[in-house]
Amino acid sequence: MRRIVIAPDSFKGSIAAREAARAIADGWQRIRPDDALLLVPQADGGEGTLDAIAAARPDARWRTAEVAGPTGEPHTARWLLLPGGQAVVEVAESCGITLLPRDASGNPRLAALTASTRGLGETLVAALDAGAEGVTIALGSSASTDGGLGALAALGLQLRDAAGATLPDGGGALGALAAIDDTGLRAAPPRGVTLLTDTTARLTGLEGAAVVFGPQKGAGPADVALLDAGLARAATLAGGSEHVRPGAGAAGGTAWGFLRYWGASIRSGAETVAAITGLDQALEGADLVITGEGRFDATSLRGKVVGSAIERAGAAGVDVAIVAGQADPAAAAERRVITLTALAGSSEAAIADPTVWLRDAGAELARALEP
């Protein structure tokens, strides 16, 4: 009997990490039913972080908050409360791009200038009111570029224009920002705030939030310039040097807002989730770890789930297999990689029914294992 750890990331836009791990396990058990399988789904600190932690931590408790979605629509956001009072919230759950209203074709109506992080702040209010002693914020999949000021406004930060009026939500309004008053801002929880991200983007400039991430949120060239200028104005009024820190541009600059006003710290998302879910402990005595993601390429080895799993497995002396939707041939050349695209015959077929092909991938890996 072999001990197999199954620790994939989500296959973004296709299947969540928990379901991916279950499908791989089902396929493996078709071939090797007597092996011990340990499912430890992972995340890189973005979308899917809550689900990965909840799957590995039965002592976590789900909570909900009624919040404003990215463009103001009522939304029920989930968050987790861990023993000891640590709250875990996720940008994607409260103001993520997947929560935007859809058009007739089912595509999100991108709102680069008006989308806001207010819902994140309202989720944090709920966590503080519930007695959270510390907060972990998973950044990623955001719809907005407002520097996190929408979230902070929900927590009591006052944003005003030159006439003294409250500034509207959204990064597009930041160009009119004239004053920031933090006297009414709720204090950070006593055990502090941790931001999960693996981006090194700064708040502004060519490597900033608007330039790097704005286009995928629907921002055209003029919008990018407007958003970048607005973030720069906010940073000037706020003072401090947090805006130049690598990672400050995460989630449309949300990291900057919490670095500046709540004294947050930044940690690697993949490494933190691996620690919370006990991946190192799971690897002890394992014969193989199966990890994976939607696309495996050179970037997978830098701060992503697959790279983290490979490093941890190497330290534990455990072999690694990778299941990916697609793979760059150069990156896959010296590793054991199975792609769903190859199994299904096309990327379209793989995306259409990932569960089927993940099961097949698990079965193929099981067949390849020595008796």
From TrEMBL:
Which Gene3D superfamilies is this protein grouped with?
A: Glycerate kinase, domain 1, Glycerate kinase, domain 2
Q: Which family does it belong to?
A: Belongs to the glycerate kinase type-1 family.
Top-level enzyme category = transferase
Which NCBIfam families would you find in this protein's record? glycerate kinase
Q: Please state what the protein is called.
A: Glycerate kinase
- Signal sequence region: none
Q: Name one GO biological process term.
A: organic acid phosphorylation
Q: Name one Pfam family in it.
A: Gly_kinase
Which E.C. number(s) belong to this protein?
A: 2.7.1.31
Organism, by scientific name, is Microcella frigidaquae
Q: Which GO terms describe its molecular function?
A: glycerate kinase activity
Q: What keyword terms does UniProt attach to this protein?
A: Kinase, Transferase
Asked if the keyword Transferase belongs to this entry, the reply reads yes
